[in-house]
Amino acid sequence: MAASFLANRRIVAGLLVNLFSSICIVFINKWIYVHYGFPNMTLTLVHFVVTWLGLYCCQKMDVFAPKSLPIRRIVWLALSFCGFVAFTNLSLQNNSIGTYQLAKAMTTPVIILIQTTYYKKTFSTKIKLTLVPITLGVILNSYYDVRFNLLGIVFASLGVLVTSLYQVWVGAKQHELQVNSMQLLYYQAPLSSAFLLCIVPLFEPLTGPGGIFGPWSLPALMTVLFSGVVAFLVNLSIYWIIGNTSPVTYNMFGHFKFCITLVGGYLLFHDPLSLNQALGILCTLAGILSYTHFKLMEQEEGKSRLAQRP
Length: 310
Fold this sequence. Notes:
Blueprint: H1 2-36, H2 40-60, H3 75-94, H4 97-104, H5 107-118, H6 125-143, H7 150-177, H8 181-203, H9 218-244, H10 247-268, H11 275-308
C-alpha cells in the first residue's frame, strides 16, 4: 500500500514537472523575444548545451546508461534537431502564441503523410478523417489572426515539416540502434550544439546590440539560462512520464497543456482572439481528441488480437 502510494506520488510529481516546464518554456521564450530581443539561434544553442550538461549529470547519477553510437549514423538526426528547435522558436518569435500552438498541431497530419508516402504505412479511414478538423481549425485560426504575418507562417510551416521528419527519424533510429530516447539525445545534443556553433556566426551578430556577446543585462542572461534549464526539464520529464506510465498518458496530458498554453498566451501577452479564431481552436482540439480516441481503440484491438493468438 505504501509502495503504491509512493509510486502514485512520483507519477503525479512527474506530470506536474512536465506541465510546469512545457508551459513555462513557451512563455519564457516568448518573454525573451519580446522584452530582450535575444537572438533565436543562440537561445537554441543554449538549450542544447544545457540539455547535454543535464544528461551528463543524469548518467553520472545512473539515471540511464549511455550507449556508444557511431556519429555518422545520427548526423541527419542531429541536423533535423537543430532545424526543428530553431524553426519552432522562430515561429514563436514571429507569431501569436495561439497561432504558434495550433501550427504545431499540424505535425500529426504531416507525420502521417510522410509515413504513408515514404514508409508505405497504412492508416484507417477514421484516423485520416480526424486530420480534416485539425487542418481546417489551423487554417481558420491563421486566416483570422489579426497579427498574421507571412514570415511567421513560413517559419511555422518549416517548423512543422522539420519536426515531423525529426519525430519519424527518432522512432526509426531508436529501433535501428536499439536505444531509448535519453541515450539518443545524449549523443544528439552535443552534435547539434557543434552544428549550431558553426552556423550561428553566419546568421546572428557576434557583438553590439542584439549580438551574442552584446551588452546583455544580468536579468536577460539569467532568464536565458533559466530557459535552458526548463528546456532540459521538458526533455527529461517526457522520457520519465512515458517510461513510468505510457505514451497514451503523455498524449492525453498533452491536450491539457495545449489548452492551458493557449489560455496563458491570451492572458499574459494579450493576444487578440476573434470568434472565428475560437472556432478554429475548438475545431483543431476536436480533431486532436478524435485522433487520440481512434488511435487508442486501434491499439487496444491490436493487443486483443495478439492475446487471442495461440
